[in-house]
Amino acid sequence: MIAAIFVLLAIIAFVGAHSPAEEVILDHLKQYQRYTKDTLCTSNKCCTVSDTDSCSLAGMTKDESILVLPGGETRCIFSTSTPFAFQVIPGSSDKLLFYFQGGGACWDEASTKLGLCTSDVSPQKLVGVFDRTRTDNKYRDYTIVQVSYCSGDVHGGDIVQPYNDKAGQPVTQKGVANAQSAVDWVKSQVSQGLLAKSFSELVVMGCSAGSIGAQIWARQVLSQLSWQTAAVVPDSYAGIFPDGTMGPLIAGFGFCNTELAYDDIKAQCDAKTLTLQDIDRATMNAVKSVPFSFIQSKTDIVQQSFYVSVGLSMGVNASITPAQFYADVNDVFGTYNQQHGNFLAYLVDGDQHCFTPSSTVYYAATGAGPNGATNKVHGAQTTDQMLYQWTNTFPLAEAAAQTTQCDGAVQAAASNVKYAGQLAGDTTYCSSSVVPKTFTEHY
Predict the structure, then answer these.
(1) Predicted TM-score of the model (pTM)
(2) Long-range interactions of 242-248: CB distance < 8 A, separation 24+
(3) What digits encode the pLDDT tens for the residues 259-293?
Protein backbone atom coordinates (compact mmCIF):
# COMPACT_ATOMS: atom_id res chain seq x y z
CA MET A 1 0.00 0.00 0.00
CA ILE A 2 2.73 2.48 1.00
CA ALA A 3 4.74 1.67 -2.11
CA ALA A 4 1.67 2.24 -4.25
CA ILE A 5 1.16 5.67 -2.69
CA PHE A 6 4.72 6.70 -3.43
CA VAL A 7 4.36 5.47 -7.02
CA LEU A 8 1.19 7.54 -7.34
CA LEU A 9 2.91 10.63 -5.96
CA ALA A 10 5.81 10.11 -8.37
CA ILE A 11 3.41 9.85 -11.30
CA ILE A 12 1.60 13.00 -10.18
CA ALA A 13 4.92 14.86 -9.95
CA PHE A 14 6.01 13.61 -13.37
CA VAL A 15 2.88 14.56 -15.27
CA GLY A 16 2.45 17.85 -13.43
CA ALA A 17 -0.96 16.99 -12.00
CA HIS A 18 -1.84 17.81 -8.41
CA SER A 19 -4.31 16.51 -5.87
CA PRO A 20 -7.01 18.89 -4.57
CA ALA A 21 -5.07 19.31 -1.32
CA GLU A 22 -1.89 20.17 -3.22
CA GLU A 23 -3.80 22.64 -5.38
CA VAL A 24 -4.94 24.46 -2.22
CA ILE A 25 -1.36 24.65 -0.97
CA LEU A 26 0.01 25.80 -4.33
CA ASP A 27 -2.70 28.45 -4.55
CA HIS A 28 -1.70 29.69 -1.10
CA LEU A 29 1.92 29.96 -2.23
CA LYS A 30 1.05 32.19 -5.20
CA GLN A 31 1.03 35.23 -2.91
CA TYR A 32 4.83 35.06 -2.58
CA GLN A 33 6.56 37.02 -5.31
CA ARG A 34 9.27 35.06 -7.09
CA TYR A 35 12.80 36.41 -7.39
CA THR A 36 16.02 34.94 -8.74
CA LYS A 37 19.64 35.34 -7.73
CA ASP A 38 19.89 38.10 -10.33
CA THR A 39 16.69 40.00 -9.48
CA LEU A 40 16.43 39.82 -5.67
CA CYS A 41 18.70 42.77 -4.98
CA THR A 42 17.98 44.69 -8.17
CA SER A 43 14.29 44.77 -7.22
CA ASN A 44 14.78 45.27 -3.47
CA LYS A 45 17.14 47.28 -1.31
CA CYS A 46 19.81 44.93 0.07
CA CYS A 47 22.84 44.96 2.34
CA THR A 48 25.38 42.15 2.36
CA VAL A 49 27.21 41.47 5.63
CA SER A 50 30.99 41.44 5.17
CA ASP A 51 34.18 42.07 7.08
CA THR A 52 33.80 45.76 6.36
CA ASP A 53 30.01 46.14 6.54
CA SER A 54 27.89 44.85 9.43
CA CYS A 55 24.67 46.19 7.85
CA SER A 56 24.07 48.39 10.87
CA LEU A 57 20.75 50.04 11.64
CA ALA A 58 22.66 53.31 11.58
CA GLY A 59 22.77 53.10 7.79
CA MET A 60 19.10 52.20 7.33
CA THR A 61 16.11 54.45 6.79
CA LYS A 62 13.25 54.39 9.28
CA ASP A 63 10.11 52.60 8.03
CA GLU A 64 11.80 51.42 4.81
CA SER A 65 12.30 47.73 4.11
CA ILE A 66 15.79 46.40 3.53
CA LEU A 67 17.08 42.84 3.04
CA VAL A 68 20.14 41.79 5.01
CA LEU A 69 22.19 38.97 3.44
CA PRO A 70 24.13 37.44 6.36
CA GLY A 71 26.07 34.80 4.42
CA GLY A 72 27.84 32.12 6.46
CA GLU A 73 25.89 28.88 6.81
CA THR A 74 22.61 30.48 5.76
CA ARG A 75 20.97 29.44 2.50
CA CYS A 76 17.71 28.62 0.77
CA ILE A 77 16.68 25.07 -0.09
CA PHE A 78 18.07 24.76 -3.65
CA SER A 79 21.46 25.48 -5.17
CA THR A 80 19.58 27.60 -7.72
CA SER A 81 17.63 29.57 -5.09
CA THR A 82 18.29 33.16 -4.10
CA PRO A 83 20.74 33.68 -1.25
CA PHE A 84 19.06 33.82 2.15
CA ALA A 85 18.21 37.25 3.53
CA PHE A 86 16.18 38.47 6.48
CA GLN A 87 14.07 41.58 6.23
CA VAL A 88 14.45 44.65 8.45
CA ILE A 89 12.04 47.56 8.82
CA PRO A 90 13.65 50.04 11.23
CA GLY A 91 11.49 51.69 13.88
CA SER A 92 11.57 52.24 17.61
CA SER A 93 14.81 51.15 19.29
CA ASP A 94 13.03 49.57 22.25
CA LYS A 95 10.14 47.76 20.54
CA LEU A 96 10.79 44.66 18.44
CA LEU A 97 8.48 42.49 16.35
CA PHE A 98 10.40 39.32 15.47
CA TYR A 99 8.36 37.71 12.70
CA PHE A 100 8.66 34.30 11.01
CA GLN A 101 7.44 34.23 7.42
CA GLY A 102 5.26 31.44 6.06
CA GLY A 103 5.42 29.57 2.77
CA GLY A 104 4.46 25.89 2.90
CA ALA A 105 6.73 22.95 3.64
CA CYS A 106 8.90 20.42 1.78
CA TRP A 107 9.39 17.37 3.97
CA ASP A 108 10.37 14.68 1.47
CA GLU A 109 11.41 14.25 -2.14
CA ALA A 110 7.85 14.18 -3.48
CA SER A 111 6.68 17.34 -1.67
CA THR A 112 9.88 19.09 -2.74
CA LYS A 113 9.45 18.19 -6.41
CA LEU A 114 5.79 19.20 -6.23
CA GLY A 115 6.87 22.65 -5.01
CA LEU A 116 4.89 22.69 -1.77
CA CYS A 117 7.23 25.27 -0.23
CA THR A 118 8.73 28.59 -1.23
CA SER A 119 12.34 28.23 -2.33
CA ASP A 120 13.45 31.85 -2.75
CA VAL A 121 13.42 34.94 -0.56
CA SER A 122 10.21 36.94 -1.05
CA PRO A 123 10.10 40.19 0.95
CA GLN A 124 6.95 40.95 2.91
CA LYS A 125 4.85 43.86 1.67
CA LEU A 126 4.15 46.59 4.22
CA VAL A 127 0.58 45.51 4.97
CA GLY A 128 -1.09 43.86 7.95
CA VAL A 129 1.01 44.16 11.10
CA PHE A 130 3.83 45.45 8.85
CA ASP A 131 1.80 48.52 7.81
CA ARG A 132 3.58 51.73 8.85
CA THR A 133 0.69 54.06 8.05
CA ARG A 134 -2.37 52.64 9.84
CA THR A 135 -3.03 54.29 13.17
CA ASP A 136 -4.95 51.17 14.27
CA ASN A 137 -1.79 49.05 13.95
CA LYS A 138 0.00 48.88 17.29
CA TYR A 139 3.16 47.61 15.63
CA ARG A 140 3.50 50.46 13.12
CA ASP A 141 6.43 52.01 15.04
CA TYR A 142 8.17 48.78 16.04
CA THR A 143 11.46 47.73 14.56
CA ILE A 144 10.51 44.60 12.60
CA VAL A 145 12.87 41.78 11.79
CA GLN A 146 11.32 39.13 9.58
CA VAL A 147 13.02 35.79 9.10
CA SER A 148 12.37 35.15 5.44
CA TYR A 149 11.32 31.62 4.56
CA CYS A 150 12.98 29.71 1.75
CA SER A 151 14.22 26.55 3.47
CA GLY A 152 11.01 24.49 3.40
CA ASP A 153 11.65 23.17 6.93
CA VAL A 154 9.27 25.37 9.00
CA HIS A 155 12.35 27.26 10.27
CA GLY A 156 13.56 24.16 12.12
CA GLY A 157 15.93 22.37 9.77
CA ASP A 158 19.61 21.57 9.64
CA ILE A 159 20.09 18.79 7.14
CA VAL A 160 21.40 17.80 3.73
CA GLN A 161 18.75 15.56 2.20
CA PRO A 162 19.56 12.36 0.27
CA TYR A 163 17.96 13.71 -2.91
CA ASN A 164 18.91 16.43 -5.37
CA ASP A 165 17.46 19.62 -6.79
CA LYS A 166 16.99 20.20 -10.53
CA ALA A 167 20.64 21.21 -10.87
CA GLY A 168 21.76 17.86 -9.48
CA GLN A 169 22.86 19.31 -6.12
CA PRO A 170 21.67 18.02 -2.73
CA VAL A 171 18.56 19.64 -1.29
CA THR A 172 19.81 21.45 1.81
CA GLN A 173 17.57 22.82 4.57
CA LYS A 174 19.14 25.35 6.93
CA GLY A 175 16.17 27.05 8.59
CA VAL A 176 17.85 27.06 12.00
CA ALA A 177 20.98 28.82 10.73
CA ASN A 178 18.80 31.29 8.84
CA ALA A 179 16.73 32.26 11.89
CA GLN A 180 19.75 32.36 14.18
CA SER A 181 21.47 34.80 11.82
CA ALA A 182 18.58 37.22 12.35
CA VAL A 183 18.73 36.80 16.14
CA ASP A 184 22.49 37.35 16.06
CA TRP A 185 22.04 40.51 14.00
CA VAL A 186 19.56 41.89 16.55
CA LYS A 187 22.04 41.12 19.33
CA SER A 188 24.78 42.93 17.40
CA GLN A 189 22.57 46.02 17.08
CA VAL A 190 21.96 45.90 20.82
CA SER A 191 25.70 45.71 21.50
CA GLN A 192 26.25 48.73 19.24
CA GLY A 193 23.65 50.73 21.18
CA LEU A 194 21.32 50.95 18.17
CA LEU A 195 18.63 48.84 19.84
CA ALA A 196 17.73 48.91 23.52
CA LYS A 197 19.58 46.66 25.94
CA SER A 198 16.17 45.56 27.18
CA PHE A 199 13.16 45.85 24.90
CA SER A 200 10.15 47.49 26.49
CA GLU A 201 8.02 45.36 24.14
CA LEU A 202 9.04 42.15 22.37
CA VAL A 203 6.62 40.16 20.21
CA VAL A 204 7.42 36.85 18.49
CA MET A 205 4.92 36.24 15.71
CA GLY A 206 4.55 34.22 12.53
CA CYS A 207 2.01 32.93 10.03
CA SER A 208 1.55 29.42 8.57
CA ALA A 209 4.96 27.72 8.47
CA GLY A 210 6.09 30.86 10.28
CA SER A 211 3.52 30.15 12.99
CA ILE A 212 5.36 26.89 13.60
CA GLY A 213 8.59 28.88 13.42
CA ALA A 214 7.35 31.25 16.13
CA GLN A 215 6.37 28.30 18.30
CA ILE A 216 9.65 26.38 18.01
CA TRP A 217 11.82 29.53 18.22
CA ALA A 218 9.96 31.42 20.98
CA ARG A 219 12.06 29.95 23.75
CA GLN A 220 15.32 30.81 22.00
CA VAL A 221 14.32 34.36 21.10
CA LEU A 222 12.95 35.08 24.56
CA SER A 223 16.08 33.71 26.22
CA GLN A 224 18.63 35.36 23.93
CA LEU A 225 17.11 38.85 24.06
CA SER A 226 16.39 40.95 27.13
CA TRP A 227 12.85 42.32 27.49
CA GLN A 228 10.42 43.90 29.94
CA THR A 229 7.15 42.75 28.34
CA ALA A 230 6.72 40.01 25.76
CA ALA A 231 4.20 37.88 23.88
CA VAL A 232 4.14 35.02 21.38
CA VAL A 233 1.46 35.21 18.67
CA PRO A 234 1.31 32.12 16.41
CA ASP A 235 -1.00 32.81 13.46
CA SER A 236 -2.70 29.88 11.73
CA TYR A 237 -0.99 26.67 12.68
CA ALA A 238 -2.33 24.54 15.53
CA GLY A 239 -0.28 21.54 14.43
CA ILE A 240 -3.02 19.10 13.42
CA PHE A 241 -1.38 16.16 11.63
CA PRO A 242 -2.23 12.48 11.18
CA ASP A 243 -1.34 10.32 14.19
CA GLY A 244 2.29 9.25 14.30
CA THR A 245 3.54 11.61 11.58
CA MET A 246 4.87 14.61 13.51
CA GLY A 247 7.79 12.83 15.19
CA PRO A 248 9.29 11.54 11.92
CA LEU A 249 8.64 14.89 10.21
CA ILE A 250 10.45 16.85 12.91
CA ALA A 251 13.38 14.43 13.02
CA GLY A 252 13.54 14.39 9.21
CA PHE A 253 14.41 18.09 9.19
CA GLY A 254 17.43 17.49 11.43
CA PHE A 255 15.73 19.37 14.27
CA CYS A 256 16.91 16.95 16.95
CA ASN A 257 20.55 17.92 16.48
CA THR A 258 19.96 21.66 16.81
CA GLU A 259 19.91 23.98 19.80
CA LEU A 260 16.12 24.08 19.54
CA ALA A 261 15.93 20.51 20.87
CA TYR A 262 16.15 21.40 24.56
CA ASP A 263 16.95 18.74 27.15
CA ASP A 264 13.28 18.42 28.14
CA ILE A 265 12.28 17.36 24.60
CA LYS A 266 15.50 15.87 23.21
CA ALA A 267 14.75 12.24 24.07
CA GLN A 268 11.34 12.41 22.42
CA CYS A 269 12.89 14.02 19.36
CA ASP A 270 15.52 11.31 19.03
CA ALA A 271 12.80 8.66 19.42
CA LYS A 272 10.81 10.34 16.62
CA THR A 273 7.80 10.83 18.90
CA LEU A 274 8.11 14.58 19.48
CA THR A 275 5.11 16.71 18.50
CA LEU A 276 4.62 20.43 18.07
CA GLN A 277 2.34 20.24 21.09
CA ASP A 278 5.21 18.81 23.18
CA ILE A 279 7.37 21.75 22.13
CA ASP A 280 4.62 24.26 22.93
CA ARG A 281 3.92 22.79 26.36
CA ALA A 282 7.62 22.81 27.26
CA THR A 283 7.96 26.42 26.09
CA MET A 284 4.83 27.69 27.83
CA ASN A 285 6.05 26.04 31.01
CA ALA A 286 9.50 27.62 30.66
CA VAL A 287 8.18 31.19 30.23
CA LYS A 288 5.00 31.27 32.29
CA SER A 289 4.72 35.06 32.30
CA VAL A 290 4.58 35.26 28.50
CA PRO A 291 1.16 34.77 26.88
CA PHE A 292 1.00 32.37 23.94
CA SER A 293 -1.84 33.89 21.96
CA PHE A 294 -2.92 31.68 19.06
CA ILE A 295 -4.89 32.99 16.08
CA GLN A 296 -6.80 30.15 14.45
CA SER A 297 -9.63 29.71 11.96
CA LYS A 298 -11.92 26.89 13.00
CA THR A 299 -11.72 25.14 9.62
CA ASP A 300 -8.43 26.43 8.14
CA ILE A 301 -8.35 24.98 4.62
CA VAL A 302 -4.56 25.14 4.18
CA GLN A 303 -3.92 23.31 7.44
CA GLN A 304 -6.41 20.64 6.41
CA SER A 305 -4.66 20.34 3.05
CA PHE A 306 -1.28 19.77 4.67
CA TYR A 307 -2.89 17.15 6.91
CA VAL A 308 -4.02 15.27 3.79
CA SER A 309 -0.74 15.74 1.90
CA VAL A 310 1.42 14.60 4.82
CA GLY A 311 -0.83 11.60 5.44
CA LEU A 312 -0.68 10.49 1.82
CA SER A 313 3.09 10.85 1.66
CA MET A 314 3.57 8.79 4.82
CA GLY A 315 1.04 6.08 4.01
CA VAL A 316 -1.39 6.76 6.85
CA ASN A 317 -5.03 7.81 7.05
CA ALA A 318 -5.24 11.15 5.27
CA SER A 319 -8.96 11.75 5.59
CA ILE A 320 -10.24 14.72 7.57
CA THR A 321 -13.43 16.80 7.61
CA PRO A 322 -13.81 20.41 8.74
CA ALA A 323 -15.73 19.22 11.81
CA GLN A 324 -13.02 16.71 12.72
CA PHE A 325 -10.30 19.31 12.15
CA TYR A 326 -12.00 21.76 14.50
CA ALA A 327 -12.55 19.01 17.07
CA ASP A 328 -8.82 18.24 16.92
CA VAL A 329 -8.00 21.94 17.35
CA ASN A 330 -10.19 21.97 20.44
CA ASP A 331 -8.38 18.89 21.76
CA VAL A 332 -5.01 20.62 21.37
CA PHE A 333 -6.12 24.00 22.67
CA GLY A 334 -8.14 22.43 25.46
CA THR A 335 -5.04 20.63 26.74
CA TYR A 336 -3.00 23.84 26.53
CA ASN A 337 -5.76 25.70 28.33
CA GLN A 338 -5.99 23.22 31.18
CA GLN A 339 -2.25 22.91 31.70
CA HIS A 340 -0.99 26.44 31.04
CA GLY A 341 -2.34 29.67 32.46
CA ASN A 342 -0.52 31.65 29.75
CA PHE A 343 -2.45 30.10 26.84
CA LEU A 344 -4.98 32.24 24.93
CA ALA A 345 -6.66 31.94 21.55
CA TYR A 346 -8.68 33.93 19.05
CA LEU A 347 -10.90 31.54 17.08
CA VAL A 348 -12.42 32.72 13.80
CA ASP A 349 -15.37 31.04 12.06
CA GLY A 350 -14.44 29.99 8.52
CA ASP A 351 -11.48 28.54 6.62
CA GLN A 352 -9.17 31.56 6.25
CA HIS A 353 -5.44 30.82 6.48
CA CYS A 354 -3.25 33.61 7.92
CA PHE A 355 -4.29 37.04 9.07
CA THR A 356 -1.36 39.07 10.38
CA PRO A 357 0.66 39.56 7.14
CA SER A 358 -2.29 41.05 5.23
CA SER A 359 -5.05 43.63 5.62
CA THR A 360 -7.32 40.72 6.57
CA VAL A 361 -6.22 41.19 10.17
CA TYR A 362 -8.18 44.48 10.32
CA TYR A 363 -11.47 43.04 9.08
CA ALA A 364 -11.71 39.67 10.81
CA ALA A 365 -13.82 38.91 13.86
CA THR A 366 -14.57 35.68 15.66
CA GLY A 367 -17.89 35.17 13.87
CA ALA A 368 -16.82 36.10 10.36
CA GLY A 369 -13.46 36.07 8.69
CA PRO A 370 -13.15 37.03 5.01
CA ASN A 371 -14.24 33.50 4.11
CA GLY A 372 -16.54 33.16 7.09
CA ALA A 373 -18.73 30.09 6.89
CA THR A 374 -21.48 31.91 8.77
CA ASN A 375 -21.81 34.57 6.04
CA LYS A 376 -22.08 37.32 8.62
CA VAL A 377 -21.28 40.90 7.68
CA HIS A 378 -17.61 41.15 6.70
CA GLY A 379 -15.75 42.35 9.77
CA ALA A 380 -18.81 42.30 12.00
CA GLN A 381 -17.91 42.67 15.65
CA THR A 382 -19.43 39.57 17.18
CA THR A 383 -17.48 39.67 20.46
CA ASP A 384 -15.79 42.34 22.54
CA GLN A 385 -12.86 42.70 20.17
CA MET A 386 -12.12 42.35 16.50
CA LEU A 387 -8.96 40.45 15.70
CA TYR A 388 -6.69 43.47 15.27
CA GLN A 389 -7.96 44.95 18.55
CA TRP A 390 -7.20 41.69 20.37
CA THR A 391 -3.77 41.34 18.75
CA ASN A 392 -2.95 44.98 19.52
CA THR A 393 -3.10 44.26 23.26
CA PHE A 394 0.07 42.15 23.10
CA PRO A 395 2.41 42.30 24.85
CA LEU A 396 0.33 42.92 27.95
CA ALA A 397 1.34 45.46 30.55
CA GLU A 398 1.76 44.39 34.16
CA ALA A 399 -1.62 43.43 35.70
CA ALA A 400 -3.39 43.77 32.34
CA ALA A 401 -5.73 40.95 31.34
CA GLN A 402 -6.86 39.36 28.09
CA THR A 403 -9.33 36.60 27.26
CA THR A 404 -9.76 33.83 24.73
CA GLN A 405 -12.25 34.90 22.05
CA CYS A 406 -14.73 32.58 20.34
CA ASP A 407 -18.17 33.13 18.82
CA GLY A 408 -20.78 30.41 19.26
CA ALA A 409 -22.67 28.32 21.78
CA VAL A 410 -20.40 26.75 24.39
CA GLN A 411 -20.57 22.95 24.27
CA ALA A 412 -19.09 20.36 26.57
CA ALA A 413 -17.52 17.17 25.30
CA ALA A 414 -20.02 14.49 24.30
CA SER A 415 -19.65 10.83 25.26
CA ASN A 416 -19.42 9.29 21.80
CA VAL A 417 -17.86 12.13 19.81
CA LYS A 418 -15.32 14.75 20.78
CA TYR A 419 -17.86 17.56 20.80
CA ALA A 420 -21.60 17.62 20.47
CA GLY A 421 -21.48 20.02 17.52
CA GLN A 422 -19.60 17.41 15.54
CA LEU A 423 -22.76 15.28 15.44
CA ALA A 424 -24.22 17.62 12.85
CA GLY A 425 -20.90 18.62 11.31
CA ASP A 426 -21.20 21.99 13.03
CA THR A 427 -18.09 24.11 13.50
CA THR A 428 -19.62 27.33 14.81
CA TYR A 429 -19.67 26.24 18.45
CA CYS A 430 -17.07 26.94 21.14
CA SER A 431 -15.60 24.20 23.31
CA SER A 432 -15.97 24.42 27.08
CA SER A 433 -12.39 23.14 27.34
CA VAL A 434 -11.15 26.30 25.62
CA VAL A 435 -13.54 29.03 26.80
CA PRO A 436 -13.93 30.96 28.97
CA LYS A 437 -10.31 31.85 29.72
CA THR A 438 -8.66 34.93 31.17
CA PHE A 439 -4.95 35.51 31.53
CA THR A 440 -3.72 38.28 33.83
CA GLU A 441 -0.15 39.38 33.29
CA HIS A 442 2.33 39.20 36.18
CA TYR A 443 5.95 39.58 35.19
Answers:
(1) 0.93
(2) 242/307, 242/310, 242/311, 242/314, 242/316, 242/317, 242/318, 243/316, 243/317, 244/316, 245/310, 245/311, 245/314, 245/316, 246/274, 246/275, 246/276, 247/271, 247/272, 247/273, 247/274, 247/275, 248/272, 248/314
(3) 999 999 999 999 999 999 999 999 999 999 999 99
